[in-house]
Specification:
By secondary structure, the chain is an all-alpha fold. The protein has eleven helices and no strands. Helix 7 runs antiparallel to helix 8. The longest helix has 26 residues.
């Protein structure tokens, strides 16, 4: 199972050029859905407007070299290691799902477009397994609605379209590959069950990539840009137009905000970390 290219085994039923055109259509759907999502939500327009507003409120200029450093820090923290997640379980689940998805998609593209590297089928199956482990871990044990709102695992919402179609894609892919591997010569072993799960795999995969406009898929492209902008805003002093972290005992701060000494005294007590006093347990 782990050493067999499942797409090569069905080349007699579905020619490689048909498989390649299917992937091209899926890529076009992702690109088109992402663009439509940005137009519908006006996220790109908001991003650039917010960026221009931050520039006007900037207290210093961030140079090109510093921006490169901030970009590297963004990639290292928010992209590669998902450091923005305070909940370690949520972070691990996200990393398993993210890297599993990357391995699964990249190896699929390479195998269907003709690569015969022996390691690719192993990467494909490992990626699918990582998706399954990380995705079901999130769905049954970490999902925000269960922790915060008490929604049961079987109650679906439109916001769940992305994660559900992603999980089903990986699950049906593994089942299909296993059933197909039962054949003695790599051919389809059972035209009934194997064909059924192959069809379900294609259906779930098509749903995943064709519903970008209504799912969370597009946020994967916008999130790194927003994280980078946040770092730049903090570096140039605009701080996304948020108030600074003041020292309430500072006379200059009390002169600027006279309500502080009036209601809290001239030497306000430190009230602790607030919401951060508890370990992160939600999304």
């Amino acid at each position: 199972m782990f050493t067999t290219n499942p797409f090569a085994a069905i080349a007699d039923l579905i020619p490689p050029n048909v498989q390649q055109w299917y992937l091209i259509v899926m890529i076009i759907m992702v690109a088109g859905g992402t663009i439509l999502d940005m137009m519908h939500k006006k996220s790109a327009k908001y991003f650039f407007m917010d960026s221009e507003k931050a520039k006007k409120n900037a207290k210093r200029t961030v140079g090109g070299g510093e921006k490169v450093g901030l970009a590297v820090a963004t990639v290292a923290n928010e992209v590669l290691t998902s450091g923005e997640f305070a909940n370690p379980k949520r972070r691990m689940s996200h990393l398993l799902t993210m890297y599993g998805f990357i391995l699964f998609v990249v190896s699929t593209l390479m195998m269907i477009f003709g690569s015969t590297a022996a390691v690719l089928p192993k990467i494909w199956h490992i990626g699918a397994l990582m998706l399954v482990v990380g995705g079901y871990w999130f769905w049954f044990f970490i999902r925000v609605d269960v922790n915060s709102e008490g929604v049961r695992w079987y109650q679906l919402r439109r916001a769940d379209l992305f994660v559900v179609s992603l999980l089903l894609t990986a699950t049906f892919a593994l089942i299909w590959s296993y059933l197909q591997s039962k054949g003695t010569t790599g051919t389809i072993a059972d035209l009934g069950w194997t064909s059924l799960f192959f069809g379900l795999f294609i259906l779930a995969n098509t749903t995943l990539f064709s519903t970008v406009l209504w799912s969370k898929f597009a946020h994967m492209f916008f999130k790194p840009a927003a994280a980078f902008q946040k770092r730049v805003a903090k570096a140039d002093g605009s701080n996304l137009n948020l108030p600074a972290d003041y020292d309430l005992t500072d006379p200059a701060v009390q002169a600027r905000f006279p309500d502080i000494p009036e209601y809290m005294g001239k030497n306000p007590e430190y009230m602790g970390p607030g919401i951060r006093r508890e370990s992160a347990n939600h999304y």
